[in-house]
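Budget justification aside, the reviewers requested a transparent look at the raw inputs and outputs of the sequence design task funded under Objective 1. We therefore reproduce one unedited record. The lines immediately below are the structure tokens for a 280-residue chain.
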């Protein structure tokens, strides 16, 4: 009967193969007698010293391929977790129509906003790495939600996990542990869009929740884009709100939206065309 030691030795002796590992087109046998990758030039095998057998070794291409597969797997998981938050999402038909194709930028002010939005999307990897967000602020109807939605839409089209929601929606029925788990899941999103910030009820409890949401995102070091009708950031005296603003402005670049109100412009266009029809 063989001892465990003998078995181990005979198992070791079987390791690897007496012949080279299968070559792919372009691969060559190098001066060292080993198979080399035709693309990166690195060794694709090495020889075991105790039996002279060949065993596979990863070249750079293969390592890159595995890293890509791993990143893709992680993205799939993130997308799935963000999709599970569908009931908190504000994505509706109007959102789907908010794309750069529909961005009419005739006024210089609108062209500037369009440029900012496009650049944000184009440089999103860096924005993500540097936790760089935006806050679109200005009077109602100036296209803040539209601008934020254009960015979110473009990134979603690239399969970036994005959550579009509002604090009102997020915290509607959330208390204690539920909220903690929800925020954890929210932070899986690579971009968080918080629409209509400041529309929350003004209570002590709500103020605490608002801070919790903003602070959680801030701590996760992931970007957020906020839209708000608020303008009183600098003059705010309420300590709780000041605390929230401080967090926001540390990570979000403010973009003032003071073009002509889009709804007003649309209304005027409509009235003009009706007038033309009536007077025609
Ligand atoms: Zn290679």
């Amino acid at each position: 009967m063989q001892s465990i030691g003998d078995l181990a030795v005979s198992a070791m002796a079987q390791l690897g193969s007496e012949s080279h590992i299968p070559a792919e087109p372009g691969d060559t046998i190098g001066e060292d007698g080993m198979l080399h990758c035709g693309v990166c030039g690195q060794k694709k095998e090495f020889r075991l010293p105790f039996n002279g057998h060949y065993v596979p070794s990863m070249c750079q291409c293969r390592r890159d391929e595995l890293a890509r597969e791993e990143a893709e797997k992680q993205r799939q998981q993130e997308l799935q977790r963000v999709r599970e938050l569908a009931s908190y999402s504000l994505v509706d038909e109007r959102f789907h129509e908010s794309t750069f194709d529909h961005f009419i930028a005739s006024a210089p002010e609108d062209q500037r906003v369009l440029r900012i939005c496009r650049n944000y999307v184009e440089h999103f990897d860096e924005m993500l790495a540097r936790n760089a967000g935006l806050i679109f602020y200005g009077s109602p109807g100036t296209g803040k939600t539209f601008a934020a939605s254009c960015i979110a839409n473009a990134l979603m089209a690239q399969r970036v996990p994005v959550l579009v929601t509002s604090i009102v929606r997020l915290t509607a029925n959330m208390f204690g542990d539920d909220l903690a788990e929800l925020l954890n899941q929210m932070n899986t999103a690579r971009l968080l869009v918080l629409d209509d910030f400041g529309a929350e009820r003004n209570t002590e409890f709500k103020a605490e929740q608002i801070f919790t949401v903003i602070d959680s995102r801030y701590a996760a070091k992931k970007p957020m884009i906020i839209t708000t009708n608020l303008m009183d950031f600098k003059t705010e005296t309420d300590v709780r709100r000041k605390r929230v603003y401080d967090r926001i402005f540390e990570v979000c670049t403010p973009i003032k939206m003071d073009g002509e109100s889009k709804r007003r412009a649309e209304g005027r266009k409509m009235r003009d065309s009706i007038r033309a029809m009536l007077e025609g």
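The chain has a mean pLDDT of 89. The chain has eleven helices and nine strands. Computational costs for records of this kind are itemized in the attached budget.
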